[in-house]
Amino acid sequence: MRAATTEPDRDPSPGGELRLVGKPLPRVDGVAKVKGATAYADDIELPGTLYCKFLRSHHPHARVLSVDTSAVSSITGVAAVLTGQDLPTKYGIMPTSEDERALESEKVRYVGDPVAAVAAVDEETALAACRAIRVEYEPLEAIESIEQALVPPVDEPIHDYGGPANIHRLAALEFGEVDDGFARADHIREDLFFFEGNTHLPMEQHSSIAVDVGDQLTLWSSTQTPHYVHRTLSRVLHLPMGHIRVVAAPHGGGFGGKTDPFSHEIVVCKLAMLTGHPVKCTLTREEVFYAHRGRHPVLMWVRTGVSSDGKILAMHFRTALDGGAYGSYGPASMLYTGALQTTTYDIPAYRFEGVRVFTNKAPCGPKRGHGTPQPRFALEVHLDKIAEEIGVDPVELRRRNYVKPYTRTVNWLRITSCGIEEVTDRVVEASGFTRRTRRPGHGMGFAVSSYMCGAGLPIYWNNMPHTECVIQVSRGGVTLSCGATEIGQGSDSVLATVAAEELGLWPNDIRLVTGDTGLAPVDLGSYSSRVTFMAGNAVRDAARRMREILTGVAAEKMGCSPAEIEVRDGKVGELAFEDAVVAAQERFGALSTHGSYTPPSNLGGSFKGAGVGPSPSYSYSAAVVDLDVDPRSGELHLNKVWLAHDIGRPINALAVKGQVEGGVYMGLGEAMMEAQAYRHGLHKQPSMLDYKSPTFLEMPEVETILVETIDPEGPYGAKEVGQGPLLPVIPAVASAVHDALGVWVDEVPVTPDKIMRALDAKAKGRDGRFGPKSFPDVPYPTMVKVAPPDAAATAL
Amino acid sequence: MLRLPRFSYLRPGSAAEAAQLLAEHGSQARLVAGGTDLLPKMKRGQVEPEVLVGLGHLGELRQVRARDDGGFDVGAGVTLSEVGAHPQLRAAYRGYVRASALVSSPALRNAGTIGGNLCVDTRCNYYDMSYEWRQAVGFCMKKDGDICRVAPASATCRAIASSDTAPVAIALGASVVLVGPEGEREVPVASLYQDDGQFYLTKADDEVLVSLRLPKPDGWRSSYVKVRSRDSIDFPVVGVAAAMKMTGPVVEACRIVLTAVGPQPLDVSGAAEALLGRELDDAAVEEVALQAAKPARPLDNADLGYVWRKRMTRIAIEQAIWEARTTSSTTSSRPA
User: Fold this and answer.
1) What is the CA angle B267-B271-B276, rounded to 5?
2) Which of these three, A581, A597, A613, is where a domain ends?
């Protein structure tokens, strides 16, 4: 194998014409998905497959006194039964919160917590066997709210770490002189907000199938993070990573809900090892609601001081997150509720205090926008209220505070390309926001946001690249191997397009091996909007290296310099691509090139907690929502949403538009109706009929406006689109309702009954508002005071 | 996935034979036509029949017949989609056709029948759950338990009447034909239901509902207003049917029937007497709606807050009255 080592050209905006990048091309996986030919994990059928079902806790919080499986062995068709004693090793996605077991043997912490599992010849038999298992519980006080989690428990805390009470993690950070900023402020405003939890609701239920043959364990799973699942399996099953292969099967939607290592993934592997048969588990829809790892419910308090002309002088932001039963990504989720306020607004002095508590509910984790939609809702509505109070137009107030490109925020985040002004201009202009005519019940709302293009640090500490890829070229074609995981967001198409652009081919000429820990080098996974930026750069480097080999050989044949060789339309200079490959193989033997990407080390600060927020770049979005509200019922009718997004440069303009529309759709669902609600310690509506999520009929027209800022470090200047466009939609809905009726619903979702309660309050002469009334006392730790970057570092 | 449990499927040659099979198998048997209500409930263990008696193949149940007296007999096996596409029914019974068109989604209306919708199970978010969920919260009297979870002091089940078509059928004065082992009888739709979410139908277990008998339109105009989260699929959280007969602008007769505000459809026509012999105006309609909404008893066993649902009952009644008055064929469920 030949690995080229020259440093490829990193110019994001090559002088040459881009043939594929930026064009609205069909996706490489589109036809198979539309025709039903794609094999999702649940479609994989292997000879002799056994089916796995779980016995789950019926108690929100209880000690497990005994698990009696003796009745199971007499059931015909049962191959194996597992309890917590078979899988005692704890794990968790965050190294600081390894608090889960695949099956709980000591204590259960939410209704749905797995206790035992059975493999049998079919699902009916496995289910009957689960029902034959006898578990003796000692129920404990169930913790059902943030407030309850903060006071000493009657029985015992949910976990034996963290604290006091049921506190999981705390943070207290101050950047700059906050008290001084408030002292200088002409206006100070405080607001309280609550964002109810909600879930991802992927169309595909989680599914996994494992087979253990010849000392090689293989797991196909609907996971967004095969690498992290790989590490967890190695740890929990006590097998070397070299004997485990994890393949991310094609996805029917992830949105963050398939980003943790899950109990069912571990259990099917263990059962396959025990029985020698392939073992499959597909969660029921109800079980997907229990797997959850969705949006945290967050209570928020924000206090901002502004000058008389609306310039922010200081901000103090407090959040309290209801984490549910386990750690999951919680420490990061909590810090994210305080991290990105500063990437849209220049806040010279900023204080953040956060707490995440454990409760006896399905564990929360990352959902599209991870920890940032909740504070973004609060922040944008809060700014609207300040604007109204000081008599400044809400768009103008924001403009006065926008961050500038190539600066560093007070909390040390490095801002590079930044299209916040342009997305604002474009969406305001297209929607007519500032020149709208009034009619009763009609309202328009505006909001902006930003999001990361990949987390600057990996989830576990290591110095390796965040993504790696290999391109192999032979007479058999071009194969691109990269651990990056297609979860429906279009990452395969992006990688194929980048490789094809550089090699003068079409995306469908690139054979992809992705999301496979056995056949492709590591990529950390499809989370934090990292794939286009990071894997895109890696693939471009690898493809340029391959192009260099091919143009070198072609130049020799043609007797010219490599710089004169054009690579396009399946040709390398005058040679057909295949002939150039043959010539290169004659010269070098097997041909492969590699690429990798490691984010720069100067993206953030060095204080404790600085690992959350840094990113090689940030996308910017602005939304205007246009709706009508019936003042007698509080029911919303959405007319239209305009969404302008700073994409840097689109790799595939069609796929980008699809992601924008998907993000708007998901944001509207959260804004208007979705709620992971509990009653008596149980999920109130664990079904797709009862958990209300919008359908076609609720979905308004979306006008997508793409703004290109050509990021200096993104591949061809590209940035993320998977998460950012969701963020401004939610506050824009709340703002539009206020515009229509003059009342504020400071709680998401903004439902008809909350709107009516706000209107009732207004009619009775009270504050026309529905929302939380207080923020609990939290034992925050001593404030960590961080000196802001000095002026030289601020202007990059 | 949730699996359908094992059962025997019987295919009777007639409705009378179906009734015989029901009598033979007693409480082990259930009728199935479209299956859109029953089969998901079997998957969740809410009903556990060992025998299903199929009706979907019976041609005699799939007819729409104009009667000599000017009314129509609609076979119980006619699908909700077929009702919506039937020109004479559309012209004569606007509210009924409207209600049929607002049931669930197009796919389910293609399978679901009008008989099935009249007999649709009462709903409750303590009951419409998997076996494991119900076990965790504690079983309720409608299945496997002995108390009502949403109203623990109640002696009867408070699951919610959820048929969209029943209230319009009642408002129109329609009746149903039931075939039992002893023969056939006709009962008003109004007396098909009772105030008990568990035993919500008054028909005997071995009777088969074979047709809906819609009376001659005779100047009656009808409407149906449905309140729910999503117009694409959801069951009603409030439903109001209104039927009115007018002489010029003057109201001659008015009936109002509510659904989804208690275990049975509620005929609140008494409250509409204030409208008789006069023209409609905002104040009168508002006052009637206020009175007519009083018996509504929404509880915390459906989507959206029950206080809001109570408030919406009044508003939906107003809308239903105004819609019944209009002669044009409205297509929106609730005017803005």
Assistant:
1) 115
2) A597
